[in-house]
Structures are given as C-alpha cells and as structure tokens.
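Here is an idea for our session: we take a single protein and study its fold together. Once you have written the record down, we can walk along the chain together.
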Amino acid sequence: MQTLSQIKSTITTLLSSALGKSLFWLGSAQVLGRIVRLGSSIIIARLLTPEIFGLVAIILTTFEVICTPTRRISSAALIQMDDAQFNNALTSANQVNWLAAIVAFITMGLLSWPLALYYQDTQLVLPMILMATSYLLLPFGMLYAAKNLRLNKMRVVGRAVLWQTVFDGLLTATLALLGLGIWAIILPKIIVIFVWIAVHRYNNPLVDVSALKATAKHSFQPSEVNTVKSAKGRFGLNSQALEILKFGFQVGLGDLAIAMRQNIDYILVGYFLGLEALGIYFFAFNASLGISLGLIQSYGTALYSHLCQKDGDNEQALSLYQKYFQSLKFIMLISVPIITVQALLAPLYLPLIYGQKWIDAGALPIFILLCLSGLVRPLGEAASQYLISSGQSRLNLICNSSFTLLIAVTIAICSLSGLTMVALGILLIHLLAMPSFTLYLALTQKTPTRTSSLSTT
C-alpha cells in the first residue's frame, strides 16, 4: 500500500511540474491526432496492398532521414539563448534554415532516380520529388516554432501537432477512398505543412530584425572571428550564421543518428526481403508503435526545452541531472502501462480493426515484438536530449551512431530467418542497449557541467 501511495505521489508531483504540463499538451495532441490517424490507417490498410505500403515506406523513410538534421538546425541554438541573443540571431538563423532546406530538397530529388532503379519501380520518382518540395516550406515556420519552444509554449506546439495530424488523417482517408493510391498518403504530408506554419505564426510576431542590425554585436574572440571570416567566403553566411550552423550541425548529426536508428530497419528489410515484406513490416511498425512513438517524440521535444530552461541565477549544474532522471520516472510511468496493454490485446484487436489479411501475412508476432521494444525506447530519447542540453553533442552522436550500427548488424543477420526474427532481434537489442545507456549516464554524469557550444550573442 505504501508503494502505491508513493507512486501516486510521484505522478501527482510530476504532472504538476513544468515538464508534466508540457508533456500533457504535446502528448494529448499526439494521442488525439493518432486517434484520427487510426481511422485513416484502417481505411488505407484495407484499400492498399503491401506493395504500395512498401513504396510509401521507402519515400517516407528517405524524407525522414533527410529532414531530421534540418529540424533543429537553428532552433537547438535559439532555444538556449536569452532574449537579446535570440532577437539578434533571427536573420542569421533564417539564413541557416534556408540553406538546410535547399540542400535537403536537392538531396531527396537526386536520390529518387537511383532508388527507383534499385527497386525497379519508376513510381517512386514523382512522389519523392513532390515530397521533397515540402522542405522548401519549412523555413516559413521554423523561427516561429523555435520561439514557441524557447518560451515553453507547449500548448501552441501541441496544437500545431494536433491539427497537422488531424488534417493529415482526414485528407489521407478521403483521398484513399477516392482511389488515389500512393498519392493518398503523399499529398497530405505536403499540404499539412501549411497548417503547421499557420499555427506557429498565429499571434506570434517576431521582432523587426532589420531594426536590430545596427546594434547587433557578437562575442567572438579575435581568433574565432578570423576563423569564421575565412569560412564566410565559402558558405556565403555571416559569422553568426556559421556559429549557429556549427552548433545545429552537431545536434543534427546526433538527430540523424537517431533517425537512422529508427528507420534503418525499413532500409535493410526492403534490401534483404523485398517490397512485400517491407510493406508488412511498415504496417506492423506503425500500427504497433504509432501512438507510443508519437508520445516519446513529444517527450523529447518537451524535455529539451525543459532542460534548457533557467530556473534561477543560483541554479546548480546538478539540477540538470536531477531534471533528467525525474523526467525518466514520468515518461516510464506513462508509457509502460500503455504499451503493455497494447501488446497484450493485440491478438484481439489487430484482425478486427485492420483486417484478416494482415494476420494471414504474418504481421501479428511482428506487431507484438515491435510494440514491446517501445517499453525502453524513452530511455534513449531522454539520454540524447540530456547530452545535447549539457553540451555533449559529440558523445550523443557517438552513442547513437554505435547503436545504429548495432541495429544494422542485428537486422542483417536476423533477416536470414525472416521478418519475425528481425522483430525479435530489434526487441532484444533495445532491451540490452537502452538500459545500459541509461546506467552509463547514471554512473558517469552525476556532476555534469552545462557547457554551451554557442558563443553567439
């Protein structure tokens, strides 16, 4: 009874904390949006074939891997700045955002042809190029989103996620019923970016950056200025933009390693087992981990802003460590019961909701195994945000890259025995690596020093 009382007290305390409120807005938006997406996924699962799901998996995986390093290319730095630094950095951050967006667009467009040749399906080319245009829309909202994250306005951030997901689900279901096939999934992904931009920009003006140009100053040391000036000619960016780009690039590489870790299974399953097997795996993954991964991603977004918040002039470095482990208790108390119930009830609701054809295709054991891997995935998300916020982006990159390599080797070996063995390998490697990563931080980071990688003011 005492244990239950302690758990209740812990949950109450965490829910009333800043992180708890932030996660409530983001998490509830994700859950409500996923309910709408569930209805959409039921429709497309019954209308589309595993082969179409395989093509969609390739397109969305490529998009996600390329997009991930650009998402926080400027916001990771902006969130850590004070008001004066933030206002002075807006023009430079906008330069960085557009550079990243253009590079991402060109990269995905160029990749469409070799991927189409490899999979011997020219249907990939046009959807990939059209999907790539969405990168060019992101800079219109990135500074506004960074401002909301920096001010911890998670209700607005959650609203953007919610409406984006709702419109995506409704448009996808409608277009699928109209018989648009693969376009029913691709087109909404582009259209809903306008929703995301509109929500973040609504009643959220930025300062007039042109009025600040005359007074903007930088706190570089002379040696740093010389280094930056020498690079300026090559990249066409001012010194402040290069400083933001450098910091965002380090964070982006760590995020890319996480994205590769989360998506390399699609790439390797498609490579070793073919499009039909990839379609089955893609369905099982999204059906099993859709809600929980959305919750985990919301947790990561809220946690980074939470860790970067300054609680006062006398804040000790140890408070960052305490915030990190307090947040772990919070997310595990929420995610573990949800994922456990989902895995236990899978044999009942999977055929009922999505159709018997997915059971016949062997999706059920894959669904359950991938679902169970979600039990420890929050540990990795929390560790990454902690390392970035404490100025240890390089360690974050090393750890996530190593885990990605481990996942790749596991999938390559397990694919020799089929999809179910791949899912089992993914579960076991997560159960081994994620708690080990957390234990490592517990033993080595008890007195961390928050060291910002930015000197931009």
Residues 211-234, 313-318, 448-457 have pLDDT under 50 and may be disordered.
